[in-house]
Amino acid sequence: MPTAIAVTSADLVLPAPDRHTPGAAVLRPPGEADLEGALAETTALLERHGHLVALVPPWLPPATVRRLHTVRAILETDRIALLDIDLPPLGTAVLARQLRQLTVSDFSPGVLASAARLLSHYIYAGAVLGSVAKLDRIPVGLKAHARSWSPSAQFAVLAHPQPHLARIGAAAAPAHGGVLPPGPAFATHLTFARGQLASDWVTAELAPAWKVQGVMENPLPADSARWWATPKLVEFAAAIPDVSVLYQLVASVRREQCRWCGFELIGDRCGFCAAPIAAPPPEDGAAPRARAATGS
């Protein structure tokens, strides 16, 4: 069986894009399962899949994060990767779907885990918001704060990969004036989810401007309103949909071996033990001796 990809709530499991893509495991939080139950569920996943890769975004409740680390510590296993990925909720769900797509490839668990950081750079995640008065995820200017008090105000916000904020609607500047967030320069599909905001801007304006190849609507993740600091939103995430393109992207990166746990990886950090690929620089006078010893 392929490596298991895990998330922490069922609303982060998006529909599979094809019949080959497996589902995701849902690691229940402390309020839904006791420690004994969590240990049993995780053990069963490891027995069935061999390895477990779980996305652990920083916006999770601290008790949920502690539970995940506790389970891994008690099981004393190096086959669980807990990945700190800082994306909004819908972007996190999209990344989990991409990893699920790649589990049927020939990538080793170590490469698959470390690929999450690489793939996250190619996800454009944002939202249309009815207010940015309480938003603290990206810089918000005083004018935007003041305009948030208008009942008809709407803002286009891009949180990742680069922050962008602009007012949209009848009172906003034309699209060529910077209202539209800068989009990806590669082929994407757009996933969006509606909160308590009546707006078709994502499908009517953003999707054509970004020249997306497809649009899919999904239910809004429960944590989205808290992440964006308002329930009046429409969240969106554009990402590479083609598994062959994802495969080529990951396969093109040089592979290394983790010097700590031995897993194969790409990038500069192991997804399973978080050890950096390069050893820490020598201290003070040790540097010349180290260079001489390596012949460099």
Pairing-aware structural class of the strands and helices? alpha/beta
How many helical elements? 9
**From N to C, what is the helix and strand string?**
EEHEHEHHEHEEEHEHEHEEH
Mean pLDDT: 88
Low-confidence stretches: 173-178, 285-296
Strand content: 15-25%
| Spatial gap, N to C terminus | 44 Å
Shape: globular
Cross-sheet strand order for the largest sheet:
7-6-5-10-8-9
Q: How many strands?
A: 12
Overall radius of gyration: 21 Å
Helix content: 25-40%
* Main sheet properties: 6 strands, mixed
List keywords for this structure.
disordered C terminus; alpha/beta; 4-stranded parallel β-sheet; 296 residues; 6-stranded mixed β-sheet
Please explain how this structure is put together.
There is one protein chain. The protein has 296 residues and is an alpha/beta fold. Helix content is 32%, strand content 18%. The chain has nine helices and twelve strands. Strands 7-6-5-10-8-9 form a six-stranded mixed beta sheet, with helices on both faces. Strands 2-1-3-4 form a four-stranded parallel beta sheet, with helices on both faces. The longest helix is centred in the N-terminal third of the chain and has 15 residues.
Explain the layout of strands and helices.
Layout (H helix, E strand, L loop, with lengths): L3 E4 L17 E2 L8 H15 L2 E4 L6 H14 L4 E4 L5 H14 L6 H12 L3 E6 L12 H6 L6 E7 L3 E5 L20 E6 L6 H10 L4 E3 L6 H5 L4 E7 L3 H9 L3 E3 L6 E3 L19 H9 L2
Helix pairs in contact: 1-2, 3-4
